[in-house]
Amino acid sequence: MAFLNLNRNNLRYNYEFLKGKFKENKVGWGVVSKVLCGNEIYLRELINMGVDEIHDSRISNLAKVKKIKPEIKTVYIKPPSKRNLADVVKYADVSLNSEFNTIKWISEEATKQDKVHKIIIMVETGDLREGVMGDHLVDFYASVFRLPHVEVIGLGTNLNCLNGVMPSTDKLIQLCLYKQIIELKFNKKIPLVSAGTSVTIPLMLNKQLPKGVNHFRVGETLYFGNNLFEDKPIEGMRQNVLELCTEIIEMQEKPVLPMGNLATNVQGEMVEIDESLYGQSSFRALLDIGLLDVDPKYLIPKNGEFEIIGASSDMIVLDLGKNPKNYKVGDLIRFKLKYMGGLAILNSNYIEKRVV
After folding, report:
1. Residues in domain Alanine racemase N-terminal (predicted)?
2. Which residues are catalytic?
């Protein structure tokens, strides 16, 4: 049976590494837990490390966080939908917003619940996902800041999430200038510029982060230890917090090429035939995991001794060549994961989740 291991020591190591770097740069931060998909075992691991601020894009996950530790600060990190506002106000202390009507509805709901809900206004800086356009920001703030039971505590932005636009010192300075303009015009203090995500960490490490940026929302780098600017590990961080273990359920020597009339497979793909391989054979292993759980392109083999040939809904097929490691049925094949692979595996109810 396939299962996922979370290495407690490596997670804590990466957390302490990042905690030290943020402290050194006088920057606050929260941990994004969305890759954990609300798994309570793993959420407890985060909380037990001393995390005091958790961010997520699913309100049900934040409800679990509040159940485990009610006093922890929770942040809902996508624009709320009208139909879940009651839960957003109930379980999230802060939410990221870019629509006036939504904030007005939050104000009404917070009044009903007799709470003050905190808001970070998201600003568009080029990646074209969520965010108020910069030339509308002053008017937007003017419409929002007097609403009852709502407190604007920051400006934020997201980069690299949709179109791959990378953060830069200039873009982040622009956001800091928006904050200064609003503070001067309205004589109101905005404490946070929440412009940092995992992709922005290299700017901080290279001392290129504008001083006005004082808050980060970090997920991927914590769990995978990667520099997203250069697609390589960050020196001093660990990349094996999560490890997928799959079991070989068939091991046979078979022809390299399929036999018979070909049509598209379950993914709508047509297999290309290399006629030079006719007559050759290799050992093929079937694994007890498939497309229903994860796209194989997000799996990283822990050694180079096999190739992922393809997958169906419930099985992945490996080519082991001459099988130099003498793998057999029942053996485990281990993979590191890319971020989207981790997200898929954590979201699969069919993969057991373990802590080691």
Report:
1. 7-226
2. 34
